[in-house]
């Protein structure tokens, strides 16, 4: 009997298209007007001018209603699913293969695309193997620090590609092509899309693009003019002086003293940026940067895991801790900014630190056509001070100490110059005359750059010279490989030869673009003069008071965690002069 009922129902359902369309109308009406839907409904067909009456309480028509509803829902879901599958297939397979074919058609070689993961497995394998053991005391560090990029260039040439997941990444080691990318005349290149997790650290200048970046750069730039930075040298001296006094106390207990300078120089640069950024609010700045250091550590830990969109919003213990740290840092910075603004307004505080100079210029811009930055913008730039100003300079100074410990002849030359030129504490005049100190610092920056590569992203279809690039391609400019390239630096490229910089940076290599540790073009680092002054002051004061050599416990193991760092520390033996 049940079979007969459903057969009748199906027969009713599979009648004329006219009645089927009427029933579909009734389905929609019943869905939209359930409260007003009576037991009988008459529907007139416009083409035939006939009226059809349906008894909506009839079990047969109720069955038809639910069957129509089921077809409507399943058809919609099937369409959505089909569309989603098509989009997914295009994103993870068809688009990468089309991009791969376009690159290969232009003679660019690279690794074949692997579904979803790209070259991640190979990258992790090579890095894990390279970082598993230290190397000999040599400056040939590229195979350990960046084995994957080196392998790609050696196999496929100066212009080659690999895969960052589903995105092709073009590795460019050709200086002429690099100029095109860095000049960015058409505005088609920007930084690659950032992992949303890292944006919790700062949304400051380095994360901006286009007109937003240009406007913010113009507002911040005056605070980093060399004339303004001259006043920072006494502040650098105070920070460095405190560190040296602590070292003296430790060294006074014995004729020589072993110390790991990597954490020491991290503390030095954190102290210096706290003082130069916040001036009279220095202690509050130290607390903020202490919290920011913890936030950086948690963020880097999260970035080493597989990225799952939206996972950062799940209230796990670490996600909640990151959220609280960000909230506390933002709140403390807002208080410091308000105190500084109030002090400047009443004349109780001078604009002689980075924050003060930034606020002073921002107030001037606020009255102009462009307008100034909001308090939230200033907060993000304060976060950026620490990110950009602490880790990179600490890395540079650490490798300078290690390299000068390896090359005592240059350590002695630099010390002689410092003792001749500088007084008890170096001032700007003395620092500007330290030529011998400057050239080994540049050579260390060449051999051990804090940032080993620059990254760009093509946001539109574009061309570099004769190479056509589809939108979505990432670009890697491998600074470390370029800095160690014999074609650009000569056969002694892997050797410590500071004299190559004796006639200036522009004449140190065969190509002016072979050395760009602070970037190149319009996006050159705004803090390069700040970093150079701080490094020269710190190195000069250390040389004034100590000689040093590498400890037998030191293991030569450079690797990258945001910056180029000594994996097992930087142990040296200090001798007080």
UniProtKB/TrEMBL annotation:
Gene3D superfamilies the record matches: Cytochrome P450 (1.10.630.10)
Cofactor: heme
Domain of life: Eukaryota
Protein name: Cytochrome P450 72A15-like
Transmembrane segments: 63-86
Similarity section: Belongs to the cytochrome P450 family.
GO cellular component, one term: membrane
GO MF term list: heme binding; iron ion binding; monooxygenase activity; oxidoreductase activity, acting on paired donors, with incorporation or reduction of molecular oxygen
Keyword Heme: yes
Annotated localization: Membrane
Keyword list, A-Z: Heme, Iron, Membrane, Metal-binding, Monooxygenase, Oxidoreductase, Transmembrane, Transmembrane helix
The encoding gene: LOC111284492
């Amino acid at each position: 009997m049940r079979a007969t009922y459903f057969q009748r129902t199906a027969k009713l359902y599979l009648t004329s298209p006219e009645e089927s369309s009427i029933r579909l109308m009734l389905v929609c009406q019943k869905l939209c007007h359930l409260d007003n839907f009576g037991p009988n409904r008459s529907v007139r067909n416009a083409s035939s001018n006939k009226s059809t009456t349906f008894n909506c309480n009839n079990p047969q028509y109720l069955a038809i209603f639910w069957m129509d509803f089921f077809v409507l829902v399943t058809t919609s879901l099937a369409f959505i699913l089909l569309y989603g599958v098509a989009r997914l297939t295009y994103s993870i397979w068809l688009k990468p293969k089309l991009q791969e074919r376009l690159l290969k058609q232009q003679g660019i070689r690279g690794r074949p695309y692997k579904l979803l993961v790209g070259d991640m497995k190979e990258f992790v394998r090579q890095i894990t193997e390279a970082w598993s053991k230290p190397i000999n005391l040599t400056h040939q560090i590229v195979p350990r620090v960046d084995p994957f990029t080196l392998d790609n260039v050696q196999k496929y040439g100066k212009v080659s590609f690999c895969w960052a997941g589903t995105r092709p990444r073009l590795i460019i080691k050709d200086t002429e092509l690099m100029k095109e990318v860095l000049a960015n005349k058409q505005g088609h290149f920007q930084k690659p899309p950032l992992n949303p997790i890292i944006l919790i650290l700062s949304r400051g200048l380095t994360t901006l693009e286009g007109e937003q970046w240009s406007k913010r750069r113009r507002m911040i730039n005056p605070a980093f003019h060399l004339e303004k930075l001259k006043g920072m040298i006494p502040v650098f001296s105070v920070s460095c002086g405190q560190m040296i006094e602590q070292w003296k106390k430790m060294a006074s207990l014995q004729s020589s003293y072993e110390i790991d300078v990597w954490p020491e120089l991290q503390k030095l640069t954190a102290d210096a940026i706290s003082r130069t950024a916040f001036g009279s609010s220095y202690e509050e700045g130290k607390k903020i940067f202490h919290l920011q250091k913890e936030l950086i550590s948690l963020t880097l830990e999260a970035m080493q895991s597989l990225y799952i969109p939206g996972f950062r919003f799940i209230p796990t213990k670490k996600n909640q801790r990151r959220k609280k740290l960000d909230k506390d840092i933002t709140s403390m910075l807002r208080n410091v900014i308000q105190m500084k603004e109030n002090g400047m307004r009443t004349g109780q505080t001078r604009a002689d630190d980075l924050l003060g100079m930034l606020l002073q210029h921002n107030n001037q811009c606020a009255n102009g056509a462009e307008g100034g930055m909001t308090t939230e913008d200033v907060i993000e730039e304060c976060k950026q001070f620490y990110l950009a100003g602490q880790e990179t300079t600490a890395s540079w100074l650490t490798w300078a100490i290690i390299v000068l410990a390896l090359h005592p002849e240059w350590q002695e030359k630099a010390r002689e110059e410092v003792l001749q030129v500088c007084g008890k504490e170096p001032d700007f005049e003395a620092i500007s005359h330290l030529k011998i100190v400057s050239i080994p610092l540049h050579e260390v920056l060449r051999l051990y750059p804090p940032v080993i590569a620059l990254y760009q992203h093509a946001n539109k279809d574009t061309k570099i010279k004769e190479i056509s690039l589809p939108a979505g391609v990432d670009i890697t400019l491998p600074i470390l490989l370029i800095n160690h390239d014999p074609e650009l630096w000569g056969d002694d490229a892997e050797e410590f030869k500071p004299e190559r910089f004796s006639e200036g940076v522009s004449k140190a290599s065969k190509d002016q673009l072979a050395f760009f540790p602070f970037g190149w073009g319009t996006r050159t680092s705004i803090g390069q003069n700040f970093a150079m002054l701080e490094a020269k002051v710190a190195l000069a004061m250390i040389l004034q008071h100590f000689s040093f050599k590498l400890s037998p416990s030191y293991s030569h193991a450079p690797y990258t965690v945001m910056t180029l760092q000594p994996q097992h520390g930087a142990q040296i033996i200090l001798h007080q002069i």
